Fold each of these.
Amino acid sequence: MAIVKHEKTPARPAPLTERSVIGWMHRHLFSSVLNSILTIVTLYIVFITVRDLWVWGISDAVWIAESRRECFDINISGACWAGVLAWMDNIIYGRYPREELWRLNLGLIVLAIWMAPLWLPRVKAKILIGLSVVFLYPFMAGYLFAGGEKGIFMQIMLTAAILCLACNTLHSIIGVSGGGGLREFLFRLPVLKDAPEKSQRNILLCLFGVSFVAVFVWQIRWNLDGVPWTQWGGLFLTLVIAGVGIASALPGGIILALGRRSRLPVIRVLSTAFIELFRSVPLITVLFMATAMFPLFMPEGIVLNKLVQVIIAVCLFNACYMAETVRGGLQTIPKGQFEGAHTIGLGYWRTMGLIVMPQALKHMIPNIVGNFIGLLKDTTLVSIIGLFDILGMLRAVSVDGAWRGLHNEPLIFGATLFFLICFVMSKYSRRLEQKLSTDHKH
Amino acid sequence: MAANINSDKPVALKPVEKFDFFNDERVRSVFYQLLTLAFVGGFGWYLFTTTAHNLEVRGMGSGFGFLSVEAGFDPDFKLVAYQAGVGTYGDIFVIGILNTIYISFLSIIATTILGFSIGVLRLSSNWLVSRVALTYVEIFRNTPLLIQVVFWYIGIFSLLPKVKQSIDLSAGSEVVLLNNRGLYMPWPEPGDLLWLTGLALVVAITAVFFLRRWAHKRQDETGKIFPTLMPSIGLIVLLPVATYLMTGSPLGWDIPKLEGFNFVGGATLPPAFLALFVALTMYHAAQLAEAVRAGILSVGKGQKDAAMAIGLRPNRSMTLVVIPQAMPAIVPPMISLWMNVVKNSSLAIAIGYPDLVAVFMQTSLNQAGHAIEIVGMTMAFYMFVSLSISWLLNMYNKRVQLVER
């Protein structure tokens, strides 16, 4: 007689040492004598550090005071955050006129509105939106921040920017609510739908022309007081320099990278030399070069201000780093893609623009974000040559009468601020990398 | 037609080549290259003429004659003899280069040791330890190096006790002292026969080299392992020590002594040096740790399993299987990190350590003018270092490729 068990034996739960908190601790903290000692020592060090930081930075810290002396009188063993709070406006906005601060905030809000569609689902033509941010937003922001007289070129670009922002927003709203895009929406209007094909285009052109003229006329009356660049400063200035740097580095980097991979020897050699020149020297030497040598390069009568010099230097420097990022992206594209493009008869520019770049850019996004983080951190160097960026402002706290000698608290605040920005961005880019790489696997 | 079909010869299908001047690829490529050359050349010519004109208008001289002009200032840290008022701008250039190389070299060594340690800790099976290492990496990677440099200088090394209350780092013997003027330590004073000890060391290292080669060869041929570690250490330590003692200990120490308000004698490292050294090391170690971690993780799990399957103990599987395969992934980023250490040492300017950029590109440029020459010389130095390091990297890559077959 065979002994046959008819019901399935249920799986026994794993032993207690494997599944509970105790099991986890056993495996990860106390798996051997050496490990246990390591854990206890580390725990002690972490405890001491966190406790001291807590006592200094939070529990003994002084938040409200008029001067550093008062901080000392209240509690000498804690941090004096009151000084940082008193200087907060300066750290963020620099010496920008206080009654004009709305312009900076508006600029930031406009940027947020402009870029928001990039993250919204169901919005089409994201590449175009991205390009419009890079090429048109700077003009709008430039006028908002600097103000003053606008030349005819600035007026046209400003009009284009406003119009583009309006179209973008409309487009995105239509897209999110499920109506496709602005184009589909317009063609669903009775006027366009019933019109013959030829006049459809004319109607659209007319619509565009009329709105352009309307916006143009409106912006003529829009006047902002000029704010000289010497009053720009703080985190705002850091972001402006880094923003311009990254926006111009991308096209510059693409051109340099294509040049470096070109089949034409002259172009290849020149691009390589340019890239390697700037990549092998420290940024500070490039900044010194800009301030010392650019004035000699200008024809008589033209004087570049220091901010422009710095921005040009940062752009040149960063374009070369971006070129290497782009080159890395281009190398991930298999040769078959180039050959396929050739086979269907595309020329060089179409191969690059339609086939290679769209794929390569997707691979490059995490590296571009990494590049931007690096640039943002490097931008603090402009304080060495006398611009009052965020680091310049943080160091200026200690020479202010009431807060004389307050060095550490502003620096730690600045470091924390940078840490938050960079950490969030790098985490986001890593997530993006994972998302894109899973997208790639079919 | 019929004749063609019947003939044995195949019909040569040669495409009709019509030379179209404007659409020919070769013509176009030459044209584009000439255009680029003309553009770059024109731009260069414009820069040259404008600069020459500007220099003339402002009455500024050019040429490298200024290098033999006396520089009226005295860098407060230097590795070679220099006298203010006598030393020239050429001397200043040399001092700057030596200072840059000095701090970069020490930081590179410290970065490599610290970076590898933290990278290994990041992979520790101990959860707490790996988390602490991760926290370290994230904090130091995500804050600007310049803020770190300034913080170490102002927040730590300038707040140390005064000279009278120096911190004694040598446990009571008062030979290594740290205070707000810097780090004071003994400096060796070589005697007459010290070169014999050096020679002994060289001999020992050569002997160890040949011993290891012989041991390898023997293992390849017979499979017998000859333990080389203990003999190697013995040779390298014992031989020089024996020589040193036999020649009568020909090495004196110049120990710092408190005289008046400061220490005299020994070697001194100013606070700016210490701050820059610590900041560079901590910042780049965090980045190296990530490279080390990525390199070790890039070795597939199967490799470790296979090593275990053929009976290698964990540490042998690490040294014989994992590390040799991880190194090709670790070394290239590590070498470019070394280059970054050299470049970032130029942040010295923010805290007054007299490196090349600070003494030459700032002080000398402000005093002597000659912007183009000075900027060119400084950049040429960094480019030279960069080229040397990429040469090193290429050598390594070539070797690795040969080993990989």
Amino acid sequence: MTNYLTTWPNETIKKRDRLLTVCDKALTGIEVAIDYGFNGHRDLILLDKAITIIQQRLAEATTLLSILVDSCDQNDKYPLWVLDALGLRNNGPPDAFTLMAENEQLLAIIKQESNLKWRQAEAPKKWLLQMQTNFKEIKAHLLGQRWQGKAKPPR
Amino acid sequence: MLNDVTVQIFLLWLALTALSILYGYYISLHPPEQKDNPIAVFWGIAFTIILLSPSQYLAYQAGLTLLFSLMLPGYFITSLGIVGAMWSLKHRAEEVSARGHQILNELNERG
């Protein structure tokens, strides 16, 4: 299978890799919140710290994604994964921007719940798991994994 | 030789002790928030006292001083058991949290 990413400028690949790193950091923050924030008791300080990190990384990732997509615009030709990330494929999975926006909404709800002292632990945990899934999906978009063996992009 | 009243009071005491232990087990399954731990310990002891006091009182009223005396060690052991379970739980949770804080700090340092 042709690796279409190699045909794209190195600068773009570097930007994408930077975005992947930021997503990984956000994922680490989420994993720590899930694995250590709810184990035995609810460590509110740890959860607050993790949420701050997730929030920072999410904002950074959203900015980087916009910069990346803007920088890809060369005579209206994009790498396949950018088309996917933008949601330009018919009946495709949710695009990266939608997923980022959903994560921001989830984070806002989680922060609101944290003010209520996280009395019901299962709900924030479920939202954190959803955020984790969304970030993994964004990473899959960026790595072009959602295009493999599927329909060709629109011309 | 044990008379009927002694057996009844002793069985009541056993049942209430079992309830206290179940309470401790329930708390360990549904741990309170960190800052609520001392409150949970207080209620653990209070719950034990509330549960076990009637049987002790009955033993005292019935003039069963030997049974009353024998109940005392179990009474305190149950209370201490609940306190111990809570502190052990808190200690374990703190260890787990420390690991989480360490990972987050490293993540922050990496920028």
Amino acid sequence: MSGAAASGNEAARATSAGARPSGHRARMTRWLIVFGLLAPALLLYATVYLGGMAIIGLASFGLGPDAESGATLVNYREVFASAHIQAVVLRTLRVSAITVIACLVLGFPVARYITSPDARWRSFVVMAVLSPLMVSAIGRVFGWIALFGPGSWVAAQTMHFFGTRATGLLYTEAGVVIGLTNILLPFMVLSIAASRANLDESLLKAAASLGATPSAVFWQVELPLNLPGILGGVLIVFSLSITNFATAALLGGSGRDVVAYEIYSNILTYHQPGTGTALAILLLVCSVAIMMLAIWVGRRADAMQAPRVET
Amino acid sequence: MSRVIVLFSVIFALLPGMIVFLASFSAGNSLAFPPREFTLHWYGVILGDPEFSSALLMSVMLAGVTSVVATAIALLAALAISRYRTPTTVLIEAFLLSPMVVPHVVIGIGILQIYIIYGLRADLMTLTTGHLIVTIPFALRLLLASIAGLDRRVEMAAASLGAPPFTVFRSVVLPQMKMGIAGALVAAFILSFDDVSLTIFLVQPGYTTIPILLFNQAENNPGPAIHAASVILLLASWIAIFLIDRLMGFERLAFASRK
Amino acid sequence: MYGVTETADGSPPHLELRGVCKTLGGRTVLDHVDLEVAKGDLLGLLGPSGSGKTTMLNIIGGFLSPDSGTVRIAGQDIVGLQPHRRDIGITFQGYALFPHLSVFDNVAFGLKQRGAPKPDIKSRVTEMLALLGLSGYETRLPRALSGGEQQRVALARALVVRPRLMLLDEPLANLDAALRHRVRFEIREVLRRTQVTSIFVTHDQDEAFALCDRVAVLNQGRIQQIGTPADLILEPANAFVAGFIGSPNMLTGRTMSYDEDSQRATVDINGFTHAVNCKTRVAPGTPLTIFVRPEEVTISPATSGGGPFQVKDWVYLGSGREMWVDGPAPLRVRLPNDAQGYERGERVTLSWRPERAHAFPADAESRATADHDTAQVRR
């Protein structure tokens, strides 16, 4: 939109936001309308979403309909004490950290490419690299199995060269990392690309005109300005990978037991809801905290590129 | 050098899908790759399998109902949030979008506990309510973005010409939101169709979806027909991407799913 | 050769472009551009959008390479040189201040790249900030600055490294009218004080005339004319320049007669006859395009016989009165605020000094050149 048209619309928004028929009756009607519109969503969320999580929360403290005694921290104590769970958590963190690094290494050049003005294959690369956002992960899992799994060509080669077992890369932590990177790369790319889109090309030209070598332009101007996007991407990918279930379960083999899988097996297979629920709550708190941090970083990034103040 | 990485990333992203696609035509009996001969045999096997076809039916119905209901609920909420901006509605917006940052497994277990407490069985309704929680945030995001792009002055013009609020909504706002609504429907459908981490806690034997079926098969004993089954699952994704790209451009959806 | 003028004191040019050509996306953006700028000169590059000014800036700055031609600074050919080695200060439209650096660090950036020792950096940056009235702004961030302040920081940043050439891309474009006048003055002062050879790229004629010693008018990739503002107004070289500078009245008429010694043509404008200045020899009957600035038209009440023109309307513009007059051709006339008024519908006569009305053959609009042979077949 042209400047004039856009500001006209802004004014219209502001006007219609403020201009309402006044009076008590009108306000009541309005309130009823708003409430009515939001009611289905809120009702659904309150019962199924909040309700469910509340039950887990209570259960983790030993409360709830099956409770034997009162509130207790025994579940949490068990979680922290258990060597098995510690190993699980360590594995989850390890896998997630490597996934983040892999996504960063692959994602930064891709984000750079799709935000550069002279990218000829831009829309194709965007579609391809971002497709895992929408293309079923399960549907593609067997592609990995066929590629790396026992009986595959890759497995035969690795056996040939490294003398390892015929499972190749599959059913190991490495397999999980590969699978996770595959589905989480889009998030890293999106986060970095969004902050790059705000990058003004004339900033790089200005730096060059002031005598900065191409390398200096990168390290002193481009990278610092991309940092929020990179940080946001790192946090999001990390959060999504510590909570991941399906990919780890299918590709992990010996490395499948990550936190989400542990929760799954505790609750569904072994029927030990106690530790399972405590672990779930802890996972919830951690991942939400990391996500909030990521959102905050994103807000700060936008603030950096705030529009110029004209006086 | 960075061009090489970009190329690698593109191949990496597309690789598993391509392999599944090619392997589905393989005449060989194992999961080996590359295939030696080509055949459509496995598609026949899969489509004839009663377990598969009932799961397919379940998936489609579930996704269909979920997408329509999610879009409807999200539309109402989006209207309320965007037209009546108060601190309360801003808070509600954050709340309604929050399932995007909560791990699906946690949501799933929560709903499972509700099942257990109230003695519910897995059926279309219970599965739908679970799927709604994870699809409404996306639909809401898309619809909010769609509403934000509307020119309010057109509505003001309609009102000044004598149209009452509901008519303005019906004949000015809604038609302009067609793309956004269609996009929300497709996105919600595919999210529901593909979901595993939530659904796995909600299904019971006899009442399962395609992704869960594949998941179980992978854990246990995947036969070679699994590739054909996967491709059928992927087909839905590919069609969804195509539709979304046509409706609103794939990029817009991608950026909308940023946390 | 068109566009080449002798530099002010006869010394070799500081910046020299010869035969620069550039095609972008199939379009010829620069077409054999020749340009000379003397040391210490302030030259304006004026032209409508699409005329090639930004491309020229990019080529001089090193962000684009010309397809052919040379670019020399102080005799050194810089065409193959990378931007960071050219030692050219650039201010960009939008200022391009590094958002993550403070004002001090922004201004110090170029000095840091050159490896200047810290105490030097500190003193030079402080000095430059003082020169631009920005003392005390050292720790502020760009987003906390107003447009005018950002402009000054951008200038300080480019100037502190003492570049051998300054390029300013639309320096006043983002500022509102009131600010523009003040900043205009400040920029000119600073450049004079530092004696840096500078080129302003702009589409705004007032800006170019106010800031620059000489202005080069650019259109469709070619330099139409270079000269002082007075040259461009009083002696436009072709129809494009005559029409672009100021907002003149544009009239069409037919040649009635032509006197080569005085370069005067008598022209018939729909029955109204008047003398105009015409540099090209034209035969009677040749259609001409005539440009007369509203300020040059004199208006007087019609004699009792009824004049050929009739007053339609007028407005007060603050800087004067502008009258719209109908007749053989519609004309705008500028009068001082306190000049004699006229009634709507009143009949009037108009006149102008022949040397202030510039006529050009009507078929040679924007590609006219002074040495173009316009000899017509005599009837």
Amino acid sequence: MLFRVTQATTLREFMALNALEQQALAEINLAREQPFRLTDHLSYVRAVSVVLVLSLWEIFGRRVNPLFLSYPSAIGRAFVQLLGSGEFERQALGSLQVFAIGLSAALAVGIAFGLIMGRYRLAEYVLDPYVYALDATPRVALIPLLLLWFGLGTSSKIAIVFLSGLFPVLMNTFSGVRSVSANLVDIGRAYGAGEGKIFTKIMLPAALPFVMAGIRLAVGRALIGIITAEMFTAVTGMGALLIRYSSALATDKFFVPVIFLALLGVILSSGVEKLQKRLAPWKETERAL
Amino acid sequence: MTEAADEQLIDELGLRHERRWSVYDHPNLIRTASVIVFLILWEIYGRRTDPILFTYPTAIAVAFWKLLISGELAHQLLVSLSALASGFGASLVLGVILGLAMGRSRLAEAALQPHINALYATPQVALTPLLMMWLGLGFAVKVAVVFLFAFFPILINTASGAKNVSASMVEVGRAYLAPPRQILFKIVFPAALPFIMAGVRIAIGRGLVGMIVAELFTAITGLGAMLSLYGNIFETAKMFVVIIILALLGIGLIHASQALERKLATWKETERAVI
């Protein structure tokens, strides 16, 4: 539409239309204004929708009992208050520490076992019944058992994060190694590469896109793992704050860790995505071939 | 050369030896051996440790039998499954409707997308305490948690399925003067079905997790409550029974959804081959 309109004006300007033609143009109304359509202004729709929901929440939230529902400005106040007290940072740091330890252990063990199971059939057949069984078990169901074994402290949280993150990495590494072309390995052998070289120079790089996809899944699962574990033990960390504020019916404070966790999830997953593009940039080419 | 000469030559060259028996040709043998060795070691080791912390296979079998006879297992399983089914059913209906709307209307997409993204980015477990505060500890909170866990995979997959419907199919429908309703139900929905089913498969697993989380927290009825209860009174063998039931439930539901996917969305593979 826009294209035709500009075309019409340029025609009129440069080709010096005669009166009849100009009249015809006016009659078929080519130069008319485009009618307003909402679909041309989707970003406004998005902004209006967000503003509308937030202000409705604010208005409605102020009317209901603050024990049940909070409202945006109260949450903002609670955020500032919690950040000022230093309590929030301490708990967040504690959670992140446990998260990092558990996730690194899951990555190390998952990649190692995935490589071994992918490379050696005996290992695959010996281990795969357990791997598949544990992978199918909802990990949350293991939380009470892990609490029984490891107590309410840091070690049980690390164990839960570990178990949450382990299987995505293990399964993806495993299928990545299995998809490595036998030709690559044969060529390595022909040039006298030892088993160690075959692992580090052929298997791991070829499986890396799969491993990275597994890591991305694992980060999300581990985050859920740490929250659930902390909600259960309810002693320290973000999950404990969630339980504490909800038990105290401090709804405004409750939303602070929720928002923090949502942001953390977004940041972590986009970070892993960037890392994936950097470490395994050949994935797209592979797919295109 | 005659066949007899061939045979003779093969004999002379010593080519007729039997293929050597290799353990790698019998993966299930290795698997079975692995499981049996594991169970025996578990039994031996488990009997030696404190029964409060650990248990062993025969004790689990006995516990299973006891729970089965008393009817407790069947009762709690039924309670759990009905919460799972209600929550999942609600998320399926609402997810597909909203997903189709978002996939077909750019206006609906723009209006809903920011909220959906924000809620999807939030780890859903973190909202469980809030739901408990609002809905109490009963059946309603379980349904709500299952709904929350299962809703987003279905919604997001349906929306991207409805968005990816080939425009030429919709145009053909329009050219034959199909009313919008028919375009939605006869063209868009079937074309999006493989996506929807993939979402359903993810959602079932997550719904199961939601069910367990809700029951662990409310700890009144259902399998999750049994888990929590037996954990607190150190009945480890009974806890293992529940864990195994939940694992089997997970495997069963995933297989069922895969079978359903194959049955309902048979054209997926063909489509993929064409592209």
